[in-house]
Design brief:
mainly alpha, 59% helix
């Protein structure tokens, strides 16, 4: 199924991207050290833990909660023909394993893919390595998910 790109879609994408990027910078989620200090719960007793990113997470959850509730009241989206809901809703092994691997990578680097793309504007010295392995990991994941497994359909 293909979706035609209308000028209104491009404007919404532009505004959304600008808001997301600005939010990443203002909240300092693009600073790997800040993220690592947030993820270091072992530093709580020493006062080295930085809980400030929890406010970013809570605000994101609140905004999406309201957006989903408002979206549920509409028959169709504002700039699309129909809503694109996830086809799969169950929690299964690939979801859990992928989430764990994502969390390990995020915890090791302090960089999430969204902020990594945002960091391209400033190109820190080691960002190329992160992006390279992000792409390699994505390709490996796609290959793994294409392998037939008993009881699971092959991913497209």
């Amino acid at each position: 199924m293909t979706t035609t790109t209308r000028p209104s879609n491009l404007v919404v994408a532009l505004i959304s991207g600008l808001l997301f990027g600005a939010g990443l910078y203002i909240s300092q989620m693009v600073d790997p050290l800040k993220v690592l200090r947030f993820l270091d719960f072992g530093a709580i007793p020493t006062g080295g833990w930085d809980p400030s990113l929890a406010f970013v997470i809570v605000a994101a959850i609140a905004v999406m909660f309201v957006a989903v509730r408002l979206g549920d009241t509409r028959a169709t989206p504002l700039f699309e023909d129909h809503f694109h809901h996830p086809a799969r809703k169950q929690i299964d092994a690939p979801l859990v394993v992928g989430s764990v691997l994502f969390g390990i990578g995020w915890g090791m680097s302090g960089i999430c893919p969204g902020p990594a793309l945002s960091l391209i504007a400033f190109w820190p010295s080691d960002l190329w390595l992160f992006i390279l392995f992000l792409l390699v990991g994505s390709a490996l994941g796609r290959l793994i998910m294409r392998r037939p497994v008993k009881g699971r359909a092959v991913a497209a």
